[in-house]
Amino acid sequence: MAQEPVVYMKHKEGEYLAASKDSIRNSPHNQVEILIKIVKVIVLFVPILLAELYRLLVGPPRKSIRGQLALVTGGGNGLGRSLCLRLAKEGCNVAVADIDWIAAQRTAKDVRDLGVKAEAFKVDVGVQESVQQLKVDVESKLGPVDILINNAGLLAMLSLSEGTTEDVQRILNVNLASHFWAIRAFKDGMMERRRGHIVSVSSTFGIAAFGRTVCYSATKFGVRGLMEALNEEFYMNGYEKDIFVTCIYPGFVATRKEFIDYLHQFGCRVPIQTPDQVADLAVEGMLKNRCEVIASPWYIQLMLKLYSIMPNGIIRLTMGIFYDTVPQLTA
Question: Which residues of the chain have pLDDT under 50?
């Protein structure tokens, strides 16, 4: 049954109602309940930890996606194209969605050459109506989507003081809001069939922010939060064994020439990977139902895991290992 809209989403002038002290429940009874739950957590902690250690050492089983339909946004070029081809090699049918219609058609043809079904679809993921139309078009031509891969994004190296208002809004729409539109469009069908996998491409800048990519980093942190919360929501709703969620964190990927030129400007020494390398890591992680895949060398993965507990001074000192000069602001 649908829930009623929450009251605080609506606003009426002068009608703010403050919570009273009596509404705060801190009774001894609640404290006893909390203590019981803490004991339960302690008892269950060991077997869960052992199970996770086993998964870490042995690795989770690899599932088959042969015959399933994957939708890849931004599938015409770069990482999206590599993801389409990699999924096809697993026997997956592919819907190639991109704002670049010519590139989407080219990728779809190359996917069909691998012996699976593929169609190209033109979409502007930053516009909710365009994503909704994409759902109609894909389902009418290829059927229901089993795997949704939100890959489309703008690689915008802008600080907060750079770019027009329209530029910033476009980055927010394409890099973050589009994930909401696509997930909302396709998740209900997955829930009805009790089968599906949702993948979103974030970035290592969604774990460790960089001060000359404020807009980009903010959207990628948003994708990270969205996917972690979505994973918990599926668990709360009883779909943890039916619908899986994976967030991909690529490092520097050799896609657009302008981006590689930008990295060279400040003497970047971070390893640059090919789209095919990142696609292999991403799909392998998805096939093992991993919640996150940091598609970078092991020492970068280790640094990113430690990032949240490192003091700012240590972080800034460490970042100096990977670049020579900081690009200056143009505005």
Answer: 1
